[in-house]
Amino acid sequence: xxxxxxxxxxxxxxxxxxxxxxxxxxxxxxxxxxxxxxxxxxxxxxxxxxxxxxxxxxxxxxxxxxxxxxxxxxxxxxxxxxxxxxxxxxxxxxxxxxxxxxxxxxxxxxxxxxxxxxxxxxxxxxxxxxxxxxxxxxxxxxxxxxxxxxxxxxxxxxxxxxxxxxxxxxxxxxxxxxxxxxxxx
Length: 185
Hints:
Elements: H1 7-14, H2 16-26, H3 34-58, H4 67-70, H5 73-82, H6 98-118, H7 137-150, H8 154-184
């Protein structure tokens, strides 16, 4: 077995199937239509807000000093409110270590990069604060650097991978639930 040389590569390799599941689940939403986009945002809301709240409760600022600037939950809430959707109930998630926080932040920051590609499909007349929040290449590079600083051992990487997989599962499950609901409407 090849051992990845960086924490980012370890996370990417060990969560590839999880990431693919999320991509497949969200690819079914038609972001060009109001209903499809609304369903997409609803599917994003529960996991995204759950994970952000768990990270906030842990407070990773000792490791990720710019965590408050990375948060996008307020943007998602504003878009949902503009579409007339209430804020969702949050799932239960606990983050109790820097390694788990980094694994979760890795997924959220990665979703920002993916969102930039998806945003092109969203009509300008729909609220897009969340999906159009600009990716910050420097923040991504900084995060990748932090991964290598704080996830040096196999055990540390395993904790981050476990958290990342948990976050990916929250997103995939939410998209699949919303898709079933959306298909019935």
